[in-house]
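Question (not urgent): is this output format expected?
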Amino acid sequence: MRSAPPVAVTCDGGLPWAGLQAGLPALAGAAVAAWLSAWVDLPPLAEAGAVFAAAAAGGLLGWHWPRPRPAPLVWDGACWNAGSPAVAGQVEVMIDFGGWLLLRFRPDAAATPVRWLAVSAAAARGSLHGLRAALHGGPARPAGGPRSAERQPG
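Got this back:
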């Protein structure tokens, strides 16, 4: 079996990733404000205002929070490399929405932390199909490798 051809993409996540990074703090702010409002026993209109204000503040904070720079992800036909400078490691698909992927990159060096990479179809351009082939195909198996149970003689 041949391995997938080399592919390189830029992992910036696009608008969905930015929206998620703003949406989660907005939801957290709204949840905390709703809990505090109910605990203090605010009138419904004041409670709604507090929840809205906390959600807006959390969303703005999440939107303007410094995001990691776009990272290159490269499959050279034998191994994965990510980041700049390139670090070798393993990649796992965590979420695949067709036009958007969330990947977990585990560096081979134990001292280097795990990195989450989001790839949008816009950032991958025409390489999204090649990226999926490399992610799901993995490295080539040797020709004399183990056979499946239905092909073994006996």
